[in-house]
Amino acid sequence: MIDGNFVVEGVAHDYNFLPENCVNPAFGSAIGEHMYHQHQKFGGPGYALEKSLYLNHGVGTEGLGRAVLAESQSDVLVYHETPIYGHFKDGGSRLSTGIELRELWPERVLVYGAVSPLRPGAVDRVDELVDTYRVNALKLYPIDLVEGRVTALDLGDPEVCFPVFERALERGLKVVGIHKALPVGPGPASALRIDDVQGAAAAFPELTFEVVHGGLAFVEETAMLMECAPNVVVNLEVTSALARTAPRRFAEAIGAFLAVPGGERRVIWGTGCIAAHPRPLIEAFWNLETPRDLVEERGVEPLTVEAKKNILGRNFLRLHGIDEDKLRATIAGDEFDTTELAPAWGGRTQS
Fold this sequence. Notes:
By secondary structure, the protein is an alpha/beta fold. The chain has one domain: Metal-dependent hydrolases (TIM Barrel, Alpha-Beta Barrel). 39% of the residues lie in helices and 14% in strands. It is built from 14 helices and 12 strands. The protein has an 8-stranded parallel beta sheet with strand order 1-2-5-6-9-10-11-12. A two-stranded antiparallel ribbon has the order 3-4. It has a two-stranded antiparallel sheet with strand order 7-8. Strand 10, helix 8 and strand 11 form a beta-alpha-beta unit. The two termini are 29 Å apart.
């Protein structure tokens, strides 16, 4: 918690850049180097892992969990599996880590399971994720490697994606996360746009579509999508780093979302840990004030304390039907129920 306010880490990942996990080791190595550069930049001094650990999958499941729950103000961790099969054999963020985290701390961990609708068996994969792994939501990626070809995913495609969404609803799932805006390796930039989300949102009003990395690019288009589709929410994974590294840019992006009717209830916090350590980003966001000139001269919607409380925790809990008071009572007295934060990455930071 921060100042007594509940915090949900909306996205955590377990990246594995080891050569044996890369479909193309050269591409995989380049992605890893790029991600480590961003990792250093996002958190700042004292919050970057040693490079050898970051690139060699060395933090481990428990290290990831403790970075979020013991070393930051986060009270809940939401783990996202990813289906980036074009570059990584395990999809980029393997499901098993999320399941292990939930076994360690069942009251504090939720899991999004990955599906690639462009691959055979996608509908059956939804059943497997529900029956075997008891996931809380689905996670999709907008690009895949199909028969040797890099292919863009169209969420509005009634033949490719709609059967997956129909099965999700049949199995009781209500949320579909879709990676947008942030490139991870080669692929068509057009796939990272948000244009295709509206068709899916219109066809499936009972589903909520969670645009992950919302605001990192296509800010105005994303705000317009929120205006048109009330079942679209924005997840700030990686975008949240701008609160520390580019606060004016962040204030403009978040202001665009807050200007949408009910917008402050439709934005979800996330850092993408292990992409960045969550603590400095949470603190930067909590302390951020929208610059007065942006409000007075450009009409940017200010980021209020009430909006911060919603974004940091309340919105995610509401989206998933979790009662905050009951959850607070459930986790009271456990090992993470303390205001004293442990050293970042267990002290294994860059010298």
